Amino acid sequence: MIKTGFNILNTIEVYLLYKELNYEEFFNQFNSLINEEKINTEAKKRIFQWFQDYIFKQSKSNLEHILKFITGSSRIPISMMITVSFFLNFARLIKLLF
Questions:
Q1: Which end of the chain is more exposed for a tag (fewer CB within 10 A), N or C?
Q2: What are the phi and psi torsion angles at 38 (to 5°)?
Q3: Which domain holds residue 53?
Q4: pLDDT confidence of 23, banded at 50, 70, 90?
Q5: How many domains does the chain have?
Q6: How far is Cα 75 from Cα 72, in angstroms, rounded to an integer?
Q7: pLDDT band at residue 57 under the 50/70/90 scheme
């Protein structure tokens, strides 16, 4: 039986299982090998650079919201790496969204 007030799981859960979210850790969650193959034109590189610039301007709270929107979790490390996809057909994207 555990003594009252002694619960080691509550202590290690937050501090060891998850890293603190910052810009570097945010982009470490991206699958760089696959993304390098997909970001293969100057236009796609500019779009991804815009996204990176946007992320660097965000607060920690906003980073958590963005990561949760992309992955479903605001904690890192995430279970699967993030890959970047581009829609070539804007009309098709609109049909998928609506």
A1: N
A2: -80, -30
A3: 20-97
A4: confident
A5: 1
A6: 9
A7: very high
Domain contains 3: no
Q: Which two tokens stand for residue 9?
A: 């799981």
In a domain, 85, yes or no: yes
Q: In this structure, how many other beta carbons lie within 10 angstroms of the beta carbon of residue 76?
A: 18
Nearest residue to 32 via CA among 54, 48, 46: 48
4: buried, middle or exposed (CB in 10 Å: 19+, 13-18, 0-12)?
exposed
Q: What are the helix (H) ranges across 29-98?
A: 32-38, 42-56, 60-71, 90-97
Residue range 86-91: average pLDDT? 65
Q: Whole-angstrom Cα distance, residue 30 to residue 37?
A: 13
pLDDT at residue number 14:
47
| pTM as predicted | 0.61
User: Cα angle vertex 82, ends 92, 68, to 5°?
Assistant: 90
